[in-house]
Amino acid sequence: MSGKPRLTYLNGRGRMESIRWLLAAAGVEFEEVYLETKEQFEKLIKDGFLLFQQVPLVEIDGMKMVQTRAIMSYIAGKYNLYGKDLKERALIDMYVEGISDLMQMILMFPFSPPDAKEKNLESLKERATNRYFPVFEKVLKQHGQDFLVGNKFSWADVQLMEAILAVEEKVPDVLSGFPQLQVFKTKMSNMPTIKKFLQPGSPRKPPPDAHYVETVLKIFKK
What we know:
Blueprint: E1 6-9, H1 17-25, E2 31-34, H2 38-46, E3 57-60, E4 63-66, H3 68-78, H4 86-108, H5 117-143, H6 155-170, H7 179-189, H8 192-197, H9 210-220
Helix pairs in contact: 1-3, 1-6, 4-5, 4-6, 5-7, 6-7
């Protein structure tokens, strides 16, 4: 082991992408192992690596961690991205949970049947512009600070930045009515660790394509 966190997942976004984002934002280099066959996945289960028979799997600090939320809480705490006290942590948790609900729609979008794609896209746009982004626009406007919680860069900021870019891929003008979020996006994009992650050749994965969908179904379908 090199001492770097080791991430086991498919060579695509999925549930691992938020973990990649968080590690990258914290300035942490990591290694990746890509699953390509059902047999590889089943071997991980057989060897007892996957507590609940699910990936993502992150090996960090001598632990084999599963469950996206638990992994990210650990990384956020370890790298000082989780607030200064319980109240700030509770706010970060609330914001992250909200953004995760929106991200779940994005995660499932590539698996929509062709005839449902347009309807699901409309639903994503409606939720982003009416339910989720207004919350963060209001928070940033009310406290007039650069970051969501405690005027300090946190996990919540990373998660929101990931969500903004993911929604923009589907709905390019989604931020047109959110001036605070436009400023936030620009500031986040210029943070050195995030700027590096957004460059070509970084561990950031491209939007899921047909090959990714096919691989997911091949490996995880019962």
